[in-house]
Design goal:
This protein is of the alpha+beta class and 141 residues long. It has a single domain, classed as Arc Repressor Mutant, subunit A. The protein is 30% helix and 18% strand. The chain has helices spanning 3-15, 22-33, 40-43, 53-65; strands at residues 69-72, 80-83, 96-101, 107-114, 132-135. The strands form two sheets. A three-stranded mixed β-sheet has the order 4-3-5, with no helix packed on it. A hairpin with a 7-residue loop joins strand 1 (69-72) and strand 2. Helix 1 (3-15) crosses helix 2. The longest helix has 13 residues, at 3-15. The protein is globular, with a radius of gyration of 16 Å. It holds the Pfam family FUR. Its cofactor is Zn(2+); Mn(2+); Fe(2+). This is Fur family transcriptional regulator.
Amino acid sequence: MTTGYIDKIKELLRISKLSVTETRLRILELFFTADGALEHHDFEKLEGAHFDRVTVYRTLQTFLDKGIIHKIPTTDSNIHYALCKDCSEHHHEDHHIHFKCKQCDSTLCLEEIDIPAIQLPTGYAASNVAVIVSGVCPKCK
């Protein structure tokens, strides 16, 4: 485990009122060291530990509920996850655009670009708005 992130991860878990476990530490370390969003198969690569799919799923769901990570919608059947910046328990504030590179298959949060306000017709109430832009990232150009 990278020692530079241990204190940040433990503090994040403490603030979120979650106990510090090896599984939570290792999964959050992946988020802190990733260049972009993560998929379920990324968690299967954890060195020196075996986490079954149920444990990973439950840990990710707990992190979602606590506002530690957010889901990124995709056009395929995969789910991507990324760290939240200003979210809290059961209340996500990650209103930004996501970018999917067609060459390297990475998914990135473009936090500097807000999702524009969408005016829905009377009677409609949005609970979630997601924007995915696909193309080629700067690394692949």
